[in-house]
Amino acid sequence: xxxxxxxxxxxxxAAAQTSxxxxxxxxxxxxxxxxxTATLKxxxxxxxxxxxxxxxxxxxxxxxxxxxxxxxxxxxxxxxITDQSCTITVENVPYGEYAVLVAHDVNxxxxxxxxxxxxxxxxxxxxxxxxxxxPNWDDAKFTINKPSxxxxxxxx
Length: 156
Ligand SMILES: [Ca+2]
Known about the structure:
The chain contains 4 helices and 8 strands. By secondary structure, the chain is an alpha+beta fold. It has a single domain, classed as Immunoglobulin-like (Sandwich), CATH 2.60.40.10. Strands 2, 3, 5, 6 and 7 form a 5-stranded antiparallel beta sheet that branches. The chain binds calcium ion. Residues 105, 107, 109, 111-113, 120 line the site of calcium ion (CA).
């Protein structure tokens, strides 16, 4: 009995790891992903160190994106930085319009310093320069419309 209990506890972290995935589920018994969902690969470059972690958030509406609040993201997570870059894979993303925000928590305190001049650099999908104020949905959005999508984001 005790062993079963411990096994159940041990399985919890694995279950939690799937929480960053959107809710879309393939049909029961399907052997292939549903045709209207994508795997999104996000490659983040420009990081100045491997310290701390990279936070990422995926938004699917202008309101939630421009609120700049991770709690309203469709999906979010943390990425371990290697060689000053990160690769994030988000599975089962329904086709549609999205925008991505990333930020480097350099000191590992779980918070992002929002000062544009801080060393906690930020990146936004489609942006090729520093984010000075709130991100703009029309500038940042991109369309997911095929099963395998890849985007690249630089932090500034
Ligand atoms: Ca921080």
